[in-house]
Design goal:
By secondary structure, this protein is of the alpha/beta class. It has a domain of 85 residues: 2-Layer Sandwich (Nucleotidyltransferase, domain 5), CATH 3.30.420. Helices cover 33% and strands 16% of the residues. The chain is built from 3 helices and 7 strands. The strands form 2 sheets. The protein has a 5-stranded mixed beta sheet with strand order 4-3-2-5-6. A two-stranded parallel sheet has the order 1-7. Strand 5, helix 3 and strand 6 form a beta-alpha-beta unit. The longest helix has 19 residues. The chain is elongated and about 90 Å long.
Length: 134
């Protein structure tokens, strides 16, 4: 006697709902990742017209319009700056130190900071800017 055996699960599962959910998640994360606000409050960086997209700065040092320096959102006293830079120099390796300077910061203050970073052994420094929107 021969009985026809039927599978409780159809052999051809419908994958369209799964694909739709994965696609919607992809779109959501793309939009959510690009809507991230600027990371440093109180600092308005310089704007450029031809800025190449680069890597996101990790642990930038921010300098506001009055010359106050902060790292990771914590203010840094002027006398503590050389120690902070010397501590960061070995961890940077071949990577640059990212600096977010306010657009109204006097150039002499920025140059003093750059000289202090060179004296601490930091070879590469990159100034973070914003791309100008029209």
């Amino acid at each position: 006697m021969r009985l026809d055996h039927q599978d409780p699960v159809p052999r051809e599962a419908n994958l369209v709902p799964l694909i739709n959910v994965v696609f919607l998640m992809l779109v959501f994360f793309l939009i959510a990742g690009s809507l991230r606000p600027f990371m440093v409050r109180g600092v308005s960086p310089a704007e450029t017209e031809t800025a190449e997209p680069g890597e996101r700065p990790q642990g930038p040092i921010a300098i506001d319009a009055e010359g106050a320096i902060s790292a990771g959102g914590e203010p840094i006293a002027a006398q503590d700056l050389p120690a902070l830079l010397k501590a960061r120099a070995p961890h940077l390796g071949d990577q640059p130190l990212f600096v977010i300077a306010d657009r109204t910061l006097p150039a002499t203050v920025l140059l003093d900071f750059l000289e202090a970073s060179k004296a601490a052994g930091i070879e590469k420094t990159r100034l973070v800017t914003r791309r100008r929107t029209e």
